[in-house]
């Protein structure tokens, strides 16, 4: 149903053998993981990619591409509320800080473009990573930014940011069915739009089943830890083979075995690909990068959106309404709800 991204279809903006800056938003690690296939394909096509990000996203990309040059960008340092009712309020009070970071990011990019001889830019949701003198491409699945009663305002702001770029790449298909729904369809921009299929670092493999349930934890704190405790509590008496990938990036991979439970602090690349392919059911956040990975690997899934994140809540419902996978709010999740999975098609 869904095809994976192929760079060869989108080379019209890039000079041959050019130096391409790939800048990634550090909002969880989803933006970083979905840019891995872009960076790999740039290398395969004889381009010279340079990485730019901050925090865990930068650390992950440095681990995957240890020989590539990289730059640390200023952190937007988003602070999240534990209470979902305060989620938007807390973000609103951080807007002046975000704008200051954006301006600093713009200045740093001017310096990097000059010092590294950058020929083109690919920015995955990094607002200030563009340059008026070279092709600048923006990646997003949110032309429409859902934020409740302020959706029209946040959408206009984001479209204003996108207007600084020469082209907007949407990691989805144009037709129906699709993964992003109203977030990136039925809306017009002044900036040219390309639907580039799905961005995923993974490929489907036929492997023997090793785990009945795989729990993929990701996203910003404190909600990542809250969900981890919730799911561990719900599954503690299960007799099924369960694997937890905690999404905590550290110096090295740590594996622990507790009865029928296998726990990893994190997994990357082919190791994570094997674990997902060898699992019957995936429980995960409904972050868009995770949804793309599960779709490419054609797995059964159960999604638990991050409390307060309208985008994830919309995506989970959009997937559910298409009969693909069920979902539940974090506070409502119980092990009994996993029985619903059999009523859905999976990807």
Topology readout:
Layout lengths: L18 E6 L5 H15 L3 E6 L1 H10 L5 E3 L14 H7 L1 H22 L3 E5 L11 E4 L11 H12 L4 E4 L22 E3 L15 E6 L6 H13 L6 E4 L9 E4 L2 E4 L4 H9 L1 E6 L3 H9 L3 E4 L6 H12 L26
Parallel strand pairs: 1-2, 1-4, 2-3, 4-5, 5-6, 6-7, 8-9, 8-12, 9-11, 12-13
Antiparallel strand pairs: 10-11
Helix pairs in contact: 1-2, 1-8
What this model shows, in words?
By secondary structure, this protein is of the alpha/beta class. It has two domains: 7-195, Rossmann fold (3-Layer(aba) Sandwich); 211-343, Glycogen Phosphorylase B (Rossmann fold, 3-Layer(aba) Sandwich), CATH 3.40.50.2000. The chain is built from nine helices and 13 strands. The protein is globular. The protein starts with 18 loop residues before the first strand and ends in a 26-residue tail after the last helix. The mean pLDDT is 92.
> How is the biggest beta sheet arranged?
7 strands, parallel
CATH architectural category of the largest domain: 3-Layer(aba) Sandwich
Strand proportion:
15-25%
CATH homologous superfamily label of the largest domain: Glycogen Phosphorylase B
Coarse shape = globular
Spatial strand arrangement across the major sheet: 3-2-1-4-5-6-7
Average of per-residue pLDDT values: 92
Helicity level, as a percent range?
25-40%
Terminus-to-terminus distance: 8 Å
Number of strands: 13
- Look at the structure and give the CATH class of the largest domain: Alpha Beta
């Amino acid at each position: 149903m869904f095809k994976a991204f192929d760079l060869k279809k989108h080379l019209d903006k890039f000079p041959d053998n050019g130096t391409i800056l790939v800048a990634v938003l550090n909002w969880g690690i989803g933006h970083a993981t979905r840019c891995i296939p872009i960076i790999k394909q740039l290398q395969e096509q004889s381009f010279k990619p340079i990485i730019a990000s901050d925090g865990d996203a930068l650390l992950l990309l440095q681990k995957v591409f240890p020989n590539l040059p990289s730059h640390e960008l200023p952190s937007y340092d988003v602070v999240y509320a534990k209470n979902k009712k305060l989620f938007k309020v807390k973000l609103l009070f951080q807007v002046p800080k975000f704008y200051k970071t954006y301006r600093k990011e713009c200045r740093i990019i001017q310096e990097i473009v000059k010092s590294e001889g950058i020929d083109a830019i690919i920015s995955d949701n990094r607002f200030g990573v563009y340059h008026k003198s070279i092709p600048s491409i923006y990646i997003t699945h949110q032309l429409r930014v859902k934020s409740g009663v302020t959706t029209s305002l946040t959408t206009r702001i984001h479209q204003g940011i996108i207007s600084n770029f020469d082209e907007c790449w949407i990691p989805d298909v144009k037709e129906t069915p699709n993964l992003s729904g109203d977030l990136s369809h039925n809306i017009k921009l002044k900036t040219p739009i390309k639907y580039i299929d799905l961005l995923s670092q993974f490929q489907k493999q036929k492997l023997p089943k090793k785990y009945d349930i795989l729990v993929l934890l990701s996203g910003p704190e404190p909600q990542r830890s809250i969900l981890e405790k919730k799911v561990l509590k719900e599954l503690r008496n299960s007799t099924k083979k369960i694997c937890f990938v905690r999404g905590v990036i550290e110096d090295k991979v740590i594996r622990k075995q507790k009865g029928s439970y296998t726990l990893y602090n994190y997994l990357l690349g082919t190791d994570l690909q094997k674990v997902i392919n060898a699992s019957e059911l995936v429980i995960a956040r409904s972050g868009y990068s995770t949804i793309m990975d599960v779709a490419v690997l054609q797995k059964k899934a159960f999604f638990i959106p991050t409390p307060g994140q309208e985008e994830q809540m919309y995506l989970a419902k959009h997937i559910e309404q298409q009969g693909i996978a069920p979902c539940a709010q974090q506070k409502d999740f119980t092990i009994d709800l996993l029985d619903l999975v059999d009523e859905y098609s999976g990807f």
